[in-house]
Amino acid sequence: MSEHNIHTEEHRDDEASKLGMWLFIFTELLLFGGLFLVYSIFRAQYPANFHESSLELSVTIGVINTVVLLFSSMTIAMAITAIQKKNKKLTLTLIGVTLLMALLFLVNKYFEWGHKFEHGLYPGSELIQLLERGHHLYFSLYFFMTGLHALHIVVGMVLLIICFVKVNKGSIAHDKFVFLENGALYWHLVDLIWIFLFPLMYLIS
Amino acid sequence: MENNGSHITEYKVLVRILLILLFCTFLTIEITSFNLAAFTVTVALLIAGFKSYLVLAYFMHLKYESLLLKILVSMVFVLFIVIVLITFIDYSFR
Question: At how many degrees (to 10) do helices A59-84 and A178-198 cross?
Answer without folding.
Answer: 160
